[in-house]
UniProtKB/TrEMBL annotation:
Its main location: membrane. One of its GO terms (cellular component) is membrane. This is Methyltransferase. Signal peptide: none annotated. It is found in: Endomembrane system; Membrane. Keywords: Glycoprotein, Membrane, Methyltransferase, Signal-anchor, Transferase, Transmembrane, Transmembrane helix. One of its GO terms (molecular function) is methyltransferase activity. The keyword Nucleus does not apply. It is a single-pass membrane protein; Single-pass type II membrane protein. Belongs to the methyltransferase superfamily. The keyword Transmembrane applies. GO terms for biological process: methylation. It holds the Pfam family Methyltransf_29.
Length: 748
């Protein structure tokens, strides 16, 4: 193909486009970058000019574009001179055979000027047939070249991504991880664009039935599936448990009181329980009282069993052999699992003595123990071990407490007691308060007497030592060594799990009728462990059990101390102002009790938890270890913290509006690097369900993933701001706050 001349300024705009296009096309037909720049410049200039006859965007070239052409002609002057002698016009019926931008113009009427009908002017040196063939051939070659380039680019990208995915099975390098995250981010953006207008539609609001609902705990659905004997209370996650809608707060919802006031007083409209339920709840009224129409007050002086909570905890300490409950820490007790915790009264009292109590109870649609305990700012989660193991590693707690639980401990030959033994550390205590344990009453009740005899004998088979029994309360101690298991007579009690079945961190595995944890390297009696607060800094020997180097923990803790100082200053609506800035010295620092319930979605070594405690913040942290990443949950629990294993493609086992702060560092990178059965959007809807109104979200991740996540926050109606990290240009913070959106009350 011979280059066309551009020495004349033609009358028609389309002529100028053709002239410019041919100038920027080399002899071999390849399109130069300059043509793209020219077209963009031309279109941007012409969009602002008035319309001329017959063409949308018609008119002559502007002065700047004409200058561009004149300057460009200097580069092809020799070629132009060779071709000037052959320059003529083609007839009007040949002017539209080749014009790659014809779709931009709309012909409204024929031109009234002399010349071709639509104003396309090209040289007349070619015959109609040969010109048409050359034009078609050029256009075909141009399209074919672009098509080949696109195919090659896509093939190379697919091959490269596949090679990276294969390499990631052995080792993950920082360089290609960043490339992979960028690829995911790009594909995410493309996906959002491909959805089009549908992605911009208003996010649906959940119906009233979801106000206090926890997915995966649908009792009525479980009953329809034929699950009975308590299995309907267990957790069952399926496709129907996913609901991507915004859960609104009740119409009377109020922001909870800050700690420690919130421990003793809660708003009644924030939980699903009413005054009538409180007054008709029997023993419930002994430990709570209704102050007025909209608040519930809890008192340590209120009765939990027959005596006050102080007397009860004092009794437990004495039965262990201690002067009072303040000495429990010195006896090696730090973490307590409270089964059927009521409303967290024991945990609230233990917290004053540096004991951390995790409350677990079945899902309850109204008057929930877990929901009210969390509303008070105390650790709790929904859990049932009727048929499945608890989501905690073996040897996790120093004490297990159960009072008035209604659990049939003789169910399936004591399989639930075996699960208690699994999560209890060597030398730990099992405290059981029940009317069944009252020997005098059991004599008159044969059923109770039968249960008591079973529990007492089965505890012996587990090698538990009966320390003391006072009225309805019994305290057992788990053995500190394993000698008892080998010295038992054959056939007495459950066997010890074999190595292959002794899974240290089961994730809702079926209950097993064998003693677990005996093969763990973490078998260490509580009296030999460092006492709190020294425990959260484990020794090199203890860390070696977890495959972690001491220097890594020290470095991780130092980094988190610095991060917490920065995080805390950001918990202010100031960052969402029109002129956002980091709060400075002149700005008030958020109070130490700004938040209480904290959820760390990707806890790593528990460094965030450690830094918050060292900074003196009045928080407790639910350290979550994702099933898709390295399992450091045993390490976290050995440091004296609370935590749980969880798959974030499933609903977290808690009620809506239960956490003040949700934190995740590297979580997006972890989740997007795996082949998941859910989207990040699903996870963000779950975060919104867990978060209290006016609660905070802090995400730290790579810049590309943070920018992509920011778009999702708009759908959730969060206030969001991306914050630069001065020490790391590859990462950013996404700080968000959830607004208070209430459900409209029905008119009476």
């Amino acid at each position: 193909m011979f280059p066309l001349t551009c020495d004349d300024v033609y009358e028609r705009e389309t002529e100028n486009l053709i002239c410019a296009f041919n100038f920027f096309v080399s002899n071999d037909g390849r399109l130069k970058t300059n043509w793209l720049k020219f077209t963009l410049l031309y279109l941007s200039r012409r969009m602002s000019r008035p319309l001329h006859r017959g063409f949308s965007g018609g008119g002559k070239l502007s002065g700047n574009i004409q200058d561009l052409l004149e300057d460009s002609q200097m580069k092809v002057k020799p070629e132009k001179q060779d071709f000037d002698n052959d320059k003529n016009r083609l007839s009007a019926d040949r002017r539209s055979l080749w014009n790659p931008f014809a779709f931009m113009f709309t012909v409204s009427s024929p031109s009234k000027q002399n010349g071709p009908e639509n104003g396309f002017i090209v040289p007349d040196s070619f015959s109609p047939v040969s010109s048409r063939k050359r034009y078609k051939l050029t256009l075909f070659l141009l399209k074919l070249s672009l098509f080949v380039i696109v195919i090659l680019a896509l093939s190379w990208s697919f091959w490269w991504t596949l090679s990276l995915t294969t390499a990631s099975r052995n080792h993950t390098f920082r360089g290609y991880r960043r490339l992979q995250e960028q690829l995911v981010s790009d594909l995410w953006d493309i996906g959002e664009l491909s959805v089009g207008a549908s992605s911009l539609k208003e996010t649906e609001l959940c119906s009233l039935e979801f106000e206090n609902y926890i997915p995966c705990f649908n009792i009525s659905e479980n009953l329809e599936l034929g699950l009975t004997d308590g299995q309907e209370q267990d957790r069952h996650c399926g496709p129907t448990s996913k609901h991507n809608c915004l859960v609104l707060a009740p119409s009377g919802y109020k922001v909870p009181h800050r700690w420690p006031t919130g421990r003793d007083v809660i708003w009644i409209d924030n939980v699903k329980i009413n005054a009538q339920e409180v007054l008709s709840s029997g023993s419930l009224t002994k430990r709570m009282m209704l102050l007025d129409e909209d608040q519930i007050s809890f008192s340590f002086a209120s009765s939990m069993v027959d005596d006050s909570i102080e007397d009860y905890s004092h009794q437990i300490a004495e039965m262990i052999g201690l002067r009072n409950e303040s000495y429990l820490v010195q006896a090696g007790v730090r973490t307590v699992l409270d089964i059927g915790c009521g409303f967290g009264s024991l945990g609230a009292h233990f917290f004053q003595n540096q004991l951390l109590t995790m409350c677990i109870a079945n899902y309850e649609s109204s008057g929930s123990q877990v929901e009210i305990t969390l509303e008070r700012g105390l650790p709790a989660m929904v859990a049932s071990f009727t048929a499945k193991k608890l989501p905690f590693p073996s040897l996790s707690f120093d004490m297990v407490h159960s009072a008035w639980d209604g659990i049939a401990w003789n169910y399936k030959d004591g399989i639930r007691l075996i699960e208690i033994d699994r999560v209890l550390r060597p030398g730990g205590y099992f405290v059981w308060t029940s009317p069944v344990a009252n020997t005098r009453a059991s004599v008159r009740n044969k059923d109770n007497s039968k249960v008591w005899d079973f529990v007492r004998n089965f505890a012996k088979d587990l090698c538990w030592d009966l320390l003391s029994q006072q009225d309805k309360t019994v305290v057992w101690k788990k053995p500190s060594n394993k000698d008892c298991f080998t010295s038992r007579s054959h056939g007495s009690g459950p066997s010890v799990c074999k190595v292959g079945r002794d899974v240290e961190s089961p994730y809702y595995h079926p209950l097993e009728a064998c003693i677990g944890g005996t093969h763990s390297k973490r078998w260490l009696p509580i009296e030999e462990r460092p006492k709190w607060p020294s425990r959260f800094t484990l020794s090199s020997k203890e860390l070696a059990v977890h495959g972690v180097v001491f220097d890594d923990i020290i470095e991780d803790d130092l980094n988190w101390k610095s991060a917490v100082r920065n995080y805390w200053s950001l918990l202010s609506p100031l960052i969402f102002s029109d002129h956002p800035k980091r709060p400075g010295i002149e700005d008030p620092i958020p109070p130490y009790n700004m938040v209480r319930n904290v959820l760390d979605m990707n806890a790593h070594f528990g460094g965030f938890n450690s830094a918050l405690l060292e900074a003196g913040k009045s928080v407790w942290v639910m350290n979550v270890v994702s099933t898709t990443g390295p399992n450091h949950l045993p390490l976290i629990l050995d440091r004296g913290f609370l935590g749980v294993l969880h798959d974030w493609c499933e609903a977290f086992p808690t009620y809506p509006r239960t956490y003040d702060l949700v934190h995740a560092e590297g979580f997006l990178s972890l989740e997007t690097a795996k082949q998941r059965r859910c989207s990040i959007l699903d996870v963000f809807f779950e975060i919104d369900r867990l978060l209290r109104p006016e609660g905070w979200v802090i995400l730290r991740d790579t810049s590309s993933l943070i920018e992509a996540a920011r778009g999702i926050t708009a759908r959730l109606k969060w206030e969001a701001r991306v914050v630069e990290i001065e020490s790391n240009s590859d990462e950013k913070l996404l700080v968000c706050q959830k607004p208070l959106i209430k459900r409209r009350s029905n008119p009476s």
